[in-house]
């Protein structure tokens, strides 16, 4: 789990790495929206070419992106099969009870597969080239307008960054408690389901107690260092909108226009 | 000499249901530039006293003056700017995502300009010799390194008083020595008023003055040399006596004549060598 949450970032100094996290966050979300504009071969080829260009620019090997697809492969295959067996229209190849395989069903299957993979590649690109803290800072700045309607954006971002910072600490702690409980004879991951659920209790309770202690210590330490809410605070880290970001935005505008023109 | 901390008749209890006061009629005066050690066993109230000085708890009665200013709800944030605190658990006081982010946390709270922040963070990290770790996350640091980062966070804020609340108790011996020598440097070279709350008598023996707290009361206030002569009494109230003092007591029990004054490790070794040569 450690690897999944934090080990994803790959240090680098590529064009993509150097982009403003706000730009990357916004464009990643925007990409998911415009993927749904694709509905024929031309548009999918164009989108794929675009994603490949970004992958190339990030200087990260394609293997990392393919690894990102792996945990979702069953969901993807399931959706693809649904498309293939239950679409109607076009030439019928095969028919049995409720199942029909048609040529448009086959094409839709391929399109759905491409759509999933493109979205996963793009979001993997975001997490591989942006540190968690940059993402949380970027989110804070992007959501800043929401403070006008009393959304505590600053506090949410701080909570997120503290949560991220404590993930490895609590992982360590979990390992320690597991070992301590093993030494007292608890078997983790053995026996039937109910037994396994029961064995989690002696793990969760000490973890909970110690988390509360940590939270109290942290609150005291923060207060002692003058923390009194987001008001009047300055930021140490700066996020700078650079030329890269403007170019990327223009590229996406052109892409959107091209998609609208090319789609059926 | 000016009193930077003045505490008058301070009382506090954690819960109204407690019959006994957790801090009972404390009077304390600390001079500017002084290094005061507070010792006492677990639950004696020494950490509570530190929290009262920083306004982290609200006293039931009594007054606290910091640098001539009375501690009230209004003056609280201004007073906290004058006090830096380093706590016991290295992990639970690391707020930032990486070293420089953590050192900057207090500065961000005060709304300091970014350029100024960068300069102060850099300088503070140099003082604690952590400048090469600026981008490291806390997982990649040892306990001692995390405590050095916490000290840098305090230094960057430029307070007048620094309180170490058992800051060395969770460290390995090497980390402990590094932190103690940093405390000494901060007090003697940089001129901070230092209060170190500790179990560790070796740390306390370096201070200018030591007070002993037991049951929420100050039961002794003296120079370290004087205090440690009272070896057995200290053990009675549940404290560790430095190793040379313990050895001295044991030797005394066996009827060996020993000079009464306080001895640190070096003078103890010297004395032992001399007495062996005599026999």
TrEMBL record, chain A:
Residues passing through the membrane, by range: 21-38, 72-94, 106-128, 149-167, 246-262
Record's subcellular location: Cell membrane
Main localization, broad class: membrane
Keywords from the UniProt entry: Cell membrane, Membrane, Transmembrane, Transmembrane helix, Transport
InterPro entries attached to this UniProt entry: ABC/ECF_trnsptr_transmembrane, EcfT
Membrane topology: Multi-pass membrane protein
Source domain of life: Bacteria
Any coiled-coil regions, as ranges: none
Subunit structure as annotated in this protein's UniProt entry: Forms a stable energy-coupling factor (ECF) transporter complex composed of 2 membrane-embedded substrate-binding proteins (S component), 2 ATP-binding proteins (A component) and 2 transmembrane proteins (T component).
Family per record: Belongs to the energy-coupling factor EcfT family.
Functional note: Transmembrane (T) component of an energy-coupling factor (ECF) ABC-transporter complex. Unlike classic ABC transporters this ECF transporter provides the energy necessary to transport a number of different substrates.
Protein name: Energy-coupling factor transporter transmembrane protein EcfT
Gene: ecfT
UniProtKB/TrEMBL annotation, chain B:
Major site of localization recorded for this protein: membrane
Matching InterPro entries: AAA+_ATPase (IPR003593), ABC_transporter-like_ATP-bd (IPR003439), ABC_transporter-like_CS (IPR017871), ABC_transpr_CbiO/EcfA_su (IPR015856), ECF_ABC_transporter_ATP-bd (IPR050095), EcfA_1 (IPR030947), P-loop_NTPase (IPR027417)
CDD domains listed in its UniProt record: ABC_cobalt_CbiO_domain1
Compartments it resides in: Cell membrane
Similarity field: Belongs to the ABC transporter superfamily.
NCBIfam families found in the cross-reference section: ECF_ATPase_1, PRK13635.1, PRK13648.1
Name this protein carries in UniProt: ABC transport ATP-binding protein
């Amino acid at each position: 789990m450690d690897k999944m949450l934090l080990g994803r970032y790959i240090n680098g100094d590529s064009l993509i790495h150097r982009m403003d996290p706000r730009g990357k966050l916004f464009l990643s979300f925007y990409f998911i929206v415009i993927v749904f504009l694709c509905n024929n071969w031309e548009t999918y080829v164009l989108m794929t070419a675009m994603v490949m260009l970004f992958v190339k620019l990030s200087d990260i090997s394609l293997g990392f992106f393919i690894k990102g697809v792996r945990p979702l492969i069953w969901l993807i295959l399931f959706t693809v099969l649904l498309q293939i067996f239950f679409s109607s229209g076009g030439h019928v190849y095969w028919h049995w009870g409720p199942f029909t395989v048609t040529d448009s069903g086959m094409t839709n299957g391929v399109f759905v597969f491409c759509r999933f993979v493109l979205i996963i590649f793009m979001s993997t690109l975001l997490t591989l080239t942006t540190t968690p803290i940059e993402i949380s800072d970027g989110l804070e700045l992007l959501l800043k307008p929401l403070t006008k309607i009393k959304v505590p954006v600053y506090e949410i971002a701080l909570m997120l960054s503290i949560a991220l910072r404590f993930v490895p600490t609590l992982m360590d702690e979990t390992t320690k408690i597991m070992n301590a409980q093993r030494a007292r004879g608890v078997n983790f991951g053995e026996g039937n389901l109910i037994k396994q659920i029961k064995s989690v209790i002696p793990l969760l309770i000490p973890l909970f107690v110690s988390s509360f202690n940590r939270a109290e210590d942290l609150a005291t330490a923060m207060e002692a260092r003058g923390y009194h809410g987001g008001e009047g605070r300055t930021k140490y880290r700066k996020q700078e909108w650079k030329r890269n970001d403007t170019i990327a935005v223009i590229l996406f505008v052109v892409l959107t226009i091209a998609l609208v023109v090319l789609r059926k | 000499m000016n009193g930077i901390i003045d505490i008058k008749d301070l009382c506090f209890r954690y819960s109204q249901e407690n019959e006994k006061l957790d801090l009972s009629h404390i009077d304390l005066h600390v001079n500017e530039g002084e290094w005061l050690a507070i010792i006492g066993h677990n639950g004696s109230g020494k950490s509570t006293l530190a929290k009262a000085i920083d306004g982290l708890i609200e006293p039931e009665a009594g007054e606290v003056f910091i640098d001539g200013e009375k501690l009230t709800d209004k003056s609280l944030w201004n007073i906290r700017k004058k006090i830096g605190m380093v706590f016991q658990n290295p992990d639970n006081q690391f707020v930032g995502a990486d070293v420089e982010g953590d050192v900057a946390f207090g500065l961000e709270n005060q709304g300091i300009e970014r350029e100024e922040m960068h300069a102060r963070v850099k300088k503070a990290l140099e003082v604690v010799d952590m400048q090469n770790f600026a981008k490291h996350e806390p997982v990649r640091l040892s306990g001692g390194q995390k405590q050095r980062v916490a000290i840098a966070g305090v230094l960057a804020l430029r307070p007048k008083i620094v309180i170490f609340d058992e800051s060395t108790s969770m460290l390995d011996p090497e980390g402990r020595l590094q932190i103690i020598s940093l405390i000494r440097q901060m007090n003697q070279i940089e001129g901070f008023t230092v209060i170190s709350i500790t179990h560790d008598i070796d740390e306390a023996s370096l201070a200018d003055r030591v007070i002993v707290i037991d049951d929420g009361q100050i039961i002794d206030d003296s120079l370290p040399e004087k205090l440690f002569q009272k070896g057995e009494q200290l053990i009675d109230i549940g404290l560790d006596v430095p190793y040379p003092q313990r050895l001295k007591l044991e030797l005394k029990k066996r009827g060996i004549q020993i000079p009464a004054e306080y001895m640190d490790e070096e003078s103890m070794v010297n004395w032992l060598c001399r007495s062996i040569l005599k026999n």
